[in-house]
Write a structure and sequence with these properties.
Layout (H helix, E strand, L loop, with lengths): L1 E13 L12 E13 L10 H12 L5 E2 L9 H15 L3 E10 L2 E5 L4
Parallel strand pairs: 1-3
Antiparallel strand pairs: 1-2, 2-4, 4-5
Helix pairs in contact: 1-2
The protein binds zinc ion (ZN).
The site of zinc ion has 5 residues, from β2.
Amino acid sequence: MFYLTVETDFDSAHHLPEHKGKCKNLHGHTYRVKAEVSSRELTDGMAVDFKILKDALDSICDPFDHACLNDFFQNPTAEEMARFIYDKLADTLPVKVEKVWVWESPTSCAAYCRDE
Ligand SMILES: [Zn+2]
């Protein structure tokens, strides 16, 4: 099995209306997103072209850059974002999406993979 990962980042504001702590207030993060895909087969020596992966991830994340995530999500937690990005990638890529990670900070990350 071959595994490939691509990463991207963007700056966004958000607030968590249901949260009891500081995250209830509007604030911002530099988000980092990593997506991992897999393939058993190679075509011309590649599982899939990195450009296809990166373009797919960027097209999903670009609308979030310098935007307020509450315009896209009812409750924009890293977990909800990881699931959203995973599902979008799974709909568009020709290879299996294994996992998506979303970092809200360099030390705090949520990941999502579909149970099968
Ligand atoms: Zn936050």
